[in-house]
From TrEMBL:
It comes from Eleginops maclovinus. The keyword Glycoprotein applies. This is Transporter. Na(+) binds at G80, V83, N87, N345, L476, S480. Signal peptide: none annotated. The lineage of its organism: Eukaryota, Metazoa, Chordata, Craniata, Vertebrata. GO terms for biological process: L-leucine transport. The chain crosses the membrane at residues 74-92, 104-125, 146-173, 228-248, 257-278, 306-327, 339-360, 464-489, 501-519, 539-560, 581-600, 620-645. Residues 674-722 are annotated as: Disordered. It is found in: Membrane. Its main location: membrane. It is a multi-pass membrane protein. GO terms for molecular function: metal ion binding; proline:sodium symporter activity. Belongs to the sodium:neurotransmitter symporter (SNF) (TC 2.A.22) family.
Length: 740
C-alpha cells in the first residue's frame, strides 16, 4: 500500500483505502456475485469478458485482448521463440571449444542461477500486467519506461539480419531438389583446348566455393558493395512474406503455425540422429564431444561464454517472452512454464549437439580416409628414392587399390619420422587423424552451410536429407522470428493503438527495404557486424535494468505478494535471493566482462579473399567502426532519453503519482494523489490518458450502479478527463459517497 496515499474520510468502520494494485488483485475473488459483471464506458454497458479496458484510446471503447487457444499452443510459442538457430550451430561449437561434456556443468549451473529466474521474472510481469514490454516497464517505473523501447529497437535490429539467415536457408532448400547436390563437387571450366577445375574451388572445397561464390557471390571486403544478389533478394522477400502472413492476425494466426514450426525441428533432429548413428565414424564424433576436459572449466572465459549462451538461448530482454506471456490468463502457473521451457531448451541444445557431432564424426572419418589415401600414394612415389622399402611394415600393403587403416598409417608415419627426422618436413607427408579433423571447430554459417552440407553429400539419398535439414533451419528461424516480431508489435499496439494488420505489414515492408543492405555482395559482412554489435551489450543492459526495476525499484517483497496472489502459492525463497542479490551481481559481472572484451578486441570481420580462396580477418574501415558504435548507442539510447524526459518533467510525469481508491461497501471513487508527493511504485499505476492504457483484469469487477441512471458517479468526470467508474454490489443499497 502506498505510504502517502491520501486518506479517505471513513463513514463506516469497515472502510479501507487500497491502491489500484490491491483492488485489481481481487479479480479472482471467490464470491460468485463478482463473476458476472458489466462495465460502463461512455454510457454503454458491456458484459464482463476477459478483456482489457484501453483507456488510452480516443473513444475509450473496450478492446478485447487476444488469448491463446490452449496451453499447448502457448508453450510451443515460447519453445519456438527460445529454441533457434543458436541451439544448432552455436551450442555445439561452445561445447567442443570449452571442454566437451565438462561444458555442460557451468552451463547448467548458470541456467539455474541466471536463466530460469530471469525467464520466470519476464513471464510473471507480462502475465500480471498483460501488456508488451513498453507498457510493462512504464507501469513498474515510468522513469525506466525506456527499457521497453530499447527492447523494441534491439528486436528490430535482430529481425533485420536474422531473417536474412532464413533467406539463405530458403535458397539452399530450393537448391536441394537435385541429384547430385549442386555443391557435391567443384564446377569445371571448359574452353577450346582444355577443361579444368575452377581455381577458387580447387584451393578450398566444393561446399566452401558454393557458399561464398554461388550463394553469396561475396565481395573481397565490406567497402565493395557489388550490387544486389537478385536470388538472395527474392529469398529475402519470400522470408518476410512468410513472417508477415503468419503474424498478420497476431497470435490467432502465428499460434497455429507454431504447431508445425516448433515441432518439426524435433522430428528432423531425431531422424538425423538415428541416421547418423548408423554411419561409420559417428561414435567417434560423439565420444569426442562428451570427453570432458575438466581443466578448462577453471577458465573464466568458459563461464562467461556459458552465461552469454544461457542469456541468448532463452531470448531474455527481447520482449518476445513478455509479449507472449501477456496473452495468458492471470492465474496461469508461469513458474512451471519457466522451468519447463528452460529445460526443453537445454535438452534441445544437447540433442542438436549429439546430431552435429555424430555427423561431423562421419565427415571426419571420410576426410581422414582421403588424407590417408593421398599420403599413401605420396609414400609410394617416394619409395626407393627418398624412402627405403624397409621402413614400411611388412603387413601394410601400399599397392594400388588397397586401403590402409588409420592405425597402420600412424605406425608407418611414426617409423618414417624417427628414421628421417631431419628430412621429414621436406617429404610433404601429413599426419592424418580423426581427432585432428574434429578439432577444426566451426560455428554459425560455417557449420550449417559448409561443414554440414559437405557431410550430407556423402549421405545415401543426400537430396532428401538436405531438404529436411534446411527446412528444419527455416522452421527454427521462423519460430524465433515470430517471438522477435511479437516483441516489436505487441508493445507498439498496446501503446499507440494502431491496427495489428497495418502495423505488421508496415513493419515487414520497412524491414525488407532495410534488409536489402544484407543481400548485396558485401551483405554477409553486415550480418556479422549486426550480430556482434547490435544485441549483446544492449540486451545485457536491458536485462540488468529489468532485474533492478522489479527487485529494487518496485520492491521484491511486493513482487512476491503479487506472485502469491497470481499463482495461488508463494514461489520458492530461492527466487527472492536470486532476484535481489545473486542474479544482478552475475549480470553486472557479465556486462563488465563483455564490455571489456569488446573494448579490447578491435572491430574486425572475416572476409573471403577470392584470389587466395581463404578467409582473412580485416579491420573495419572508419565508417564501419562508426556504424558498430552507432548500433550499440541507438539500441540503448531510449533508456537515458526517457529517464531524462521524466526526470525533468518534459513528459508529464503525473503517472508517477499513485491513484488511491476509496472502497466503501462496494463503492469505488477514484482519487489522484497530490502532485509532488513521493509515492511507492506500484505494479499497476494510475496513468494519464496520454501515458498508457490501464491493465484491467480479465473478469472485470466493476459494476453499474443500481440507481441514478446517467447522473450517478459513473457520469462524473475525473480530474484527468476520464469518466469516473461507479461500483456498487448488486444487493447493496445506495450508500453516501466519501468526502474526497
Amino acid at each position: 500500500m502506498p505510504k502517502n496515499s491520501k486518506a479517505v474520510k471513513r463513514e463506516l468502520d469497515d472502510d479501507v483505502t487500497e491502491s489500484v494494485k490491491d483492488l485489481l488483485s481481487n479479480e479472482d475473488g471467490r464470491d460468485d456475485t463478482f463473476k458476472k459483471t458489466s462495465l460502463i464506458i461512455n454510457n454503454h454497458e458491456v458484459e464482463g469478458k476477459e478483456c482489457d479496458v484501453e483507456e488510452g484510446g480516443s473513444d475509450g471503447e473496450e478492446e478485447e485482448r487476444p488469448a491463446w487457444n490452449s496451453k499447448l499452443q502457448y508453450i510451443l510459442a515460447q519453445v519456438g521463440f527460445s529454441v533457434g538457430l543458436g541451439n544448432v550451430w552455436r551450442f555445439p561449437y561452445l561445447c567442443q571449444k570449452n571442454g566437451g561434456g565438462a561444458y555442460l556443468v557451468p552451463y547448467l549451473i548458470l541456467l539455474i542461477l541466471i536463466g530460469i529466474p530471469l525467464f520466470f521474472l519476464e513471464l510473471a510481469v507480462g502475465q500480471r500486467i498483460r501488456r508488451g514490454s513498453i507498457g510493462v516497464w512504464n507501469y513498474i517505473s515510468p522513469r525506466l519506461g525506456g527499457i521497453g523501447f530499447a527492447s523494441c529497437v534491439v528486436c528490430f535490429f535482430v529481425a533485420l539480419y536474422y531473417n536474412v539467415i532464413i533467406s539463405w536457408s530458403l535458397f539452399y532448400f530450393s537448391q536441394s531438389f537435385q541429384q547430385p547436390l549442386p555443391w557435391h563437387e567443384c564446377p569445371l571450366v571448359k574452353n577450346k583446348t582444355l577443361t579444368y577445375v575452377v581455381p577458387e574451388c580447387e584451393k578450398s572445397s566444393a561446399t566452401t566455393y558454393y557458399w561464398y561464390r554461388e550463394a553469396l557471390n561475396i565481395s573481397d571486403n565490406i567497402s565493395e558493395g557489388g550490387g544486389l544478389n537478385w536470388r538472395m533478394t527474392l529469398c529475402l522477400l519470400a522470408a518476410w512474406s512468410m513472417v508477415c502472413l503468419a503474424m498478420i492476425k497476431g497470435i490467432q494466426s502465428s499460434g497455429k503455425v507454431m504447431y508445425f514450426s516448433s515441432l518439426f525441428p524435433y522430428v528432423v533432429l531425431i531422424c538425423f540422429l538415428v541416421r547418423a548413428l548408423l554411419l561409420k565414424g559417428s561414435i567417434d564424433g560423439i565420444r569426442h564431444m562428451f570427453t570432458p576436459k575438466l581443466e578448462i572449466m577453471l577458465e573464466p572465459k568458459v563461464w562467461r561464454e556459458a552465461a552469454t549462451q544461457v542469456f541468448f538461448a532463452l531470448g531474455l530482454g527481447f520482449g518476445g517472452v513478455i509479449a507472449f506471456s501477456s496473452y495468458n490468463k492471470r492465474d496461469n502457473n508461469c513458474h512451471f512454464d519457466a522451468v519447463l521451457v528452460s529445460f526443453i531448451n537445454f535438452f534441445t541444445s544437447v540433442l542438436a549437439t549429439l546430431v552435429v557431432f555424430a555427423v561431423l564424426g562421419f565427415k571426419a572419418n571420410i576426410m581422414n580416409s582421403k588424407c590417408i589415401a593421398l599420403n599413401s600414394q605420396r609414400i609410394v612415389s617416394l619409395l626407393g628414392n627418398r624412402i627405403e622399402q624397409s621402413l614400411i611394415p611388412h603387413h601394410i600393403n601400399l599397392t594400388q587399390g588397397s586401403e590402409v587403416s588409420s592405425e597402420d598409417y600412424d605406425q608407418m608415419i611414426d617409423i618414417i619420422k624417427k628414421v628421417k627426422e631431419n628430412q621429414f618436413d621436406s617429404l610433404g607427408l601429413d599426419a592424418c587423424s580423426i581427432e585432428g579433423e574434429l578439432n577444426k571447430a566451426v560455428q554459425g554459417t560455417g557449420l550449417a552451410f559448409i561443414a554440414f552440407t559437405e557431410a550430407m553429400t556423402h549421405f545415401p539419398a543426400s537430396p532428401f536429407w538436405s531438404v529436411m535439414f534446411f527446412l528444419m533451419l527455416v522452421n527454427l528461424g521462423l519460430g524465433s522470428m515470430f517471438g522477435t516480431i511479437e516483441g516489436i508489435l505487441t508493445p507498439l499496439i498496446d501503446t499507440f493503438k494502431v491496427r495489428k494488420e497495418f502495423l505488421t505489414v508496415g513493419c515487414c515492408a520497412l524491414a525488407f527495404s532495410i534488409g536489402l543492405l544484407f543481400v548485396q555482395r558485401s551483405g554477409n559482412y553486415f550480418v556479422a557486424m549486426f550480430d556482434d554489435y547490435s544485441a549483446t551489450l544492449p540486451l545485457l543492459i536491458v536485462v540488468v535494468l529489468e532485474n533492478v526495476a522489479v527487485a529494487w525499484v518496485y520492491g521484491i517483497d511486493k513482487f512476491f505478494e503479487d506472485l502469491k496472489e497470481m499463482l495461488g502459492f508463494t514461489p520458492y525463497r530461492f527466487y527472492y535471493y536470486m532476484w535481489k542479490y545473486i542474479t544482478p551481481i552475475l549480470l553486472l559481472v557479465l556486462l563488465g566482462t563483455s564490455f571489456i572484451q569488446l573494448a579490447m578486441k578491435p572491430p574486425v570481420y572475416s572476409a573471403w579473399i577470392q584470389e587466395e580462396a581463404k578467409e582473412q580477418e580485416l579491420f573495419f574501415p572508419p565508417w564501419g567502426v562508426v556504424v558498430c558504435i552507432s548500433l550499440v548507442v541507438m539500441a540503448i539510447m531510449p533508456v537515458p532519453v526517457v529517464f531524462a524526459l521524466r526526470y525533468f518533467n518534459i513528459i508529464d510525469d503525473s503517472s508517477g503519482g499513485i491513484s488511491t481508491v476509496a472502497y466503501k461497501k462496494g463503492r469505488i471513487i477514484k482519487e489522484t494523489a497530490r502532485p509532488g508527493e513521493d509515492d511507492d511504485t506500484s505494479l499497476i499505476q494510475g496513468k494519464s490518458p496520454s501515458e498508457a492504457p490501464s491493465p484491467m483484469p480479465g473478469n472485470n469487477i466493476y459494476r453499474k450502479q443500481s440507481g441514478g441512471g446517467g447522473n450517478g458517479p459513473e457520469a462524473d468526470t475525473a480530474p484527468n478527463g476520464r469518466y469516473g467508474i461507479g461500483y456498487l454490489m448488486a444487493d447493496m443499497p445506495d450508500m453516501p459517497e466519501s468526502d474526497l
